[in-house]
Write a structure and sequence with these properties.
mainly alpha; Arc Repressor Mutant, subunit A; 2 domains
Length: 208
């Protein structure tokens, strides 16, 4: 059992996740280690193991927080209007996703291995935040697109959420990748997160 007040425990856990987030701005998942994270916190590295047993668990906590932040934005859309057109709904959701670059980057990683290397309690906490995103999206569709059946909504969710895994690789393109595409003779139109997401949403909502 972790010793300390609830405030201390929550504060240290948040500090560890914040340290991971800072490193992730300039480093890859592969290059970030528990040692690197330990160098960023105000307490000894062995203390980290009281909160997280693996690097993957820390990333999963960061992932969970990103879903929680997105959930707040989805809730704001849900409660902010009595009615939205297809274009307005697609635009609002696309805008909320465009603000969550870190969520998209995490989605583009190998989540299977991340989840496999985390304890059940950590995985359940993550799935709770993810599940709330699914529920909020369902509520958005039920409120603003009442003509959609439950089957329509289910199909939307099972198409849109997998689509999100590919947004980051298609929009965060390095110059090296652009050069390789040109050298390979591949014609490709680079689009923003908002534009790509908005176009997908319009089609899934039956506008195009």
């Amino acid at each position: 059992m972790i010793k300390g007040t609830p405030e201390l425990i929550a504060g240290r856990r948040e500090e560890i996740v914040n340290a991971c987030e800072r490193l992730y701005q300039t480093m890859s998942f592969r290059d970030i280690t528990l040692k690197e994270i330990g160098n960023e916190v105000s307490f000894s590295r062995p203390t980290i193991y009281n909160y997280f047993q693996t690097k993957e668990e820390i990333f999963l906590a960061l992932f969970e927080r990103e879903y929680t932040r997105w959930n707040a934005e989805l809730t704001a859309i849900l409660n902010g209007s009595d009615a939205l057109s297809v274009e307005q709904l697609a635009g609002a959701i696309a805008d909320s996703i465009a603000k969550r670059t870190q969520l998209l980057r995490l989605l583009s990683m190998n989540n299977f291995d991340m989840e496999a290397s985390s304890r059940q309690e950590r995985l359940t906490a993550f799935k709770t935040a993810y599940g709330e995103s699914l529920r909020l999206m369902r509520r958005l569709l039920e409120k603003f697109r009442p003509e959609m059946t439950q089957a329509d909504i289910r199909d939307f969710i099972y198409l849109f959420f997998p689509f999100m895994f590919g947004i980051y690789p298609y929009t965060a393109v390095t110059e090296k990748q652009r050069t390789a595409m040109r050298e390979a003779g591949v014609e490709f139109e680079y689009r923003s997160v908002y534009d790509l997401t908005y176009s997908c949403l319009l089609r899934l909502l039956g506008k195009n």
